[in-house]
């Protein structure tokens, strides 16, 4: 059994999609399907229920996925340790990041990177997606972390992960004890929301419109952290990225509600200036975050060709829609 087959299965499990996993690994959809079938034959169990939309994991698949994620994290950590023994990095890595990603993912990553490379300083600059793009274009950051990444004439992106959106509320909200929230309960609901100018809000509005649901966003914020604080203080409810509320849901200050009709994922990714030559420290930190080596050419620039192996497709701005738009589905 090859490591690549395990990584492909994890990609399918994370995206709940053969096509998105195929795009991430520069494979055809049939090749991904064949890889999963061979894996199922190898372990002697059905891992994916292909009869549901989006795809779902069987009980065996869920168990296998949880174990594989731990295994792959340990393997990647071992690889980093080995690489660290062979090189000593120094200097500074400058990262532009949107607030939700920076606050949710970067504290642990920077701590791990500092442990491995104590002579490298990671400098973070927070902003909205458009400002992160601007600082990367100016060369004021080695790379940026944004939602809904896309290629432009000056920017090339690498897909990172697809993050589920959840319906989240205060324990004091009237729906807090609901087993499931349907369209009728959402209709006319007063909610905390993202500002209309943000692409994430626009995608949420589109999905609600497809569902035939109208909600009232009485309070709007330009970042997820402020939304979380408002929900806690005012007993509110909102659609938020899953990673943003992990701490609050673990401590019980917020609750995640099942909402089968609202199925949406927020794509996250790295953005780089096309002409930029990345430092070894920047390459190493980006690879740590990505969970696999960046596709880099001999000049230290991103290699947009398929030789990048398992890296997501970098195709000069002709990316398919699902690479830079939200994945949504409406349950009829």
Concise structural overview:
Residues 299-332 are annotated as: Disordered. The protein is of the alpha/beta class and 332 residues long.
Describe the structure.
By secondary structure, this protein is an alpha/beta fold. It has 3 domains: 3-74, Winged helix-like DNA-binding domain superfamily/Winged helix DNA-binding domain (Arc Repressor Mutant, subunit A, Orthogonal Bundle); 89-162 and 266-330, Periplasmic binding protein-like II (D-Maltodextrin-Binding Protein, domain 2, 3-Layer(aba) Sandwich), CATH 3.40.190.10; 164-265, D-Maltodextrin-Binding Protein, domain 2, CATH 3.40.190.290. Helix content is 41%, strand content 23%. It has 11 helices and 12 strands. It has helices spanning 3-15, 18-24, 29-43, 59-86, 99-116, 129-138, 183-186, 199-211, 224-234, 246-251, 280-290, and strands at residues 48-49, 56-57, 91-98, 120-127, 143-147, 155-169, 190-194, 216-221, 237-241, 255-257, 262-273, 327-330. Strands 3, 4, 5, 6, 9, 10, 11 and 12 form an 8-stranded mixed sheet that branches. Strands 1-2 form a two-stranded antiparallel sheet. Helix 1 crosses helix 3 and helix 1 crosses helix 4 (59-86). It is globular and about 60 Å long. Mean pLDDT is 86; it is low at 305-325.
Helix tally equals 11
Sequence stretches where pLDDT stays below 50 over 5 or more residues:
305-325
* Coarse shape: globular
Main sheet, how many strands, which sense, barrel? Answer: 8 strands, mixed
CATH first level of the largest domain: which class? Alpha Beta
CATH homologous superfamily caption of the largest domain: Periplasmic binding protein-like II
Question: Which structural class fits the helix and strand makeup?
Answer: alpha/beta
Q: Strand-and-helix sequence, N→C? A: HHHEEHEHEHEEHEHEHEHEEHE
First-to-last CA distance: 39 Å
CATH topology of the largest domain: D-Maltodextrin-Binding Protein, domain 2
Q: How much of the residues is beta strand, in percent?
A: 15-25%
Tally of domains: 3
Number of strands: 12
CATH architecture term of the largest domain: 3-Layer(aba) Sandwich
Average pLDDT over all residues? 86
Radius of gyration of CA atoms, rounded to a whole number: 20 Å
Secondary structure: helix percent: 40-55%
GO molecular function: DNA binding; DNA-binding transcription factor activity
Organism: Crateriforma conspicua
Protein name: HTH-type transcriptional regulator CynR
Family: Belongs to the LysR transcriptional regulatory family.
């Amino acid at each position: 059994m090859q490591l690549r087959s395990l990584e492909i299965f994890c990609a399918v499990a994370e995206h709940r999609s053969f096509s998105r996993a195929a795009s991430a690994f520069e494979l055809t959809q049939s090749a991904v399907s064949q890889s999963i079938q061979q894996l199922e034959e190898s372990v002697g169990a059905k891992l994916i229920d292909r009869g549901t939309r989006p795809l779902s994991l069987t009980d065996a698949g869920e168990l296998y996925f949880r174990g594989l994620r731990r295994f792959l994290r340990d393997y990647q950590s071992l690889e980093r340790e080995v690489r660290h023994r062979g090189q000593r990095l120094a200097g500074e890595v400058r990262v532009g990041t949107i607030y939700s990603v920076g606050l949710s993912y970067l504290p642990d990553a920077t701590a791990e990177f500092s442990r491995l490379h104590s002579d490298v300083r990671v400098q973070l600059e927070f902003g909205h997606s458009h400002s992160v793009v601007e600082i990367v274009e100016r060369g004021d950051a080695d790379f940026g972390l944004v939602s809904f990444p896309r290629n432009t004439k000056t920017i090339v992106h690498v897909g990172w992960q697809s993050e589920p959106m959840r319906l989240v509320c205060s324990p004091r909200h009237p729906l807090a004890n609901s087993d499931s929230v349907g369209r009728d309960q959402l209709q006319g609901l007063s909610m905390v929301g993202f500002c209309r100018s943000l692409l994430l809000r626009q995608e949420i509005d589109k999905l609600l419109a497809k569902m035939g649901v109208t909600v009232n966003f009485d309070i709007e914020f330009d970042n997820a952290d402020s939304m979380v604080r408002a929900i806690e203080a005012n007993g509110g409810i909102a659609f938020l990225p899953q990673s943003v509320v992990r701490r609050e849901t673990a401590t019980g200050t917020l609750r995640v509600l099942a909402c089968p009709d609202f199925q949406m994922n927020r794509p996250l990714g790295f953005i780089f200036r096309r002409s930029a030559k990345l430092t070894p420290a920047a390459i190493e930190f980006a690879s740590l975050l990505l969970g696999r080596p960046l596709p880099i050419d001999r000049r230290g620039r991103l290699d947009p060709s398929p030789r990048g192996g398992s890296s997501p497709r970098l195709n000069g701005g002709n990316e398919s829609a699902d690479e830079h738009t939200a994945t949504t589905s409406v349950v009829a």
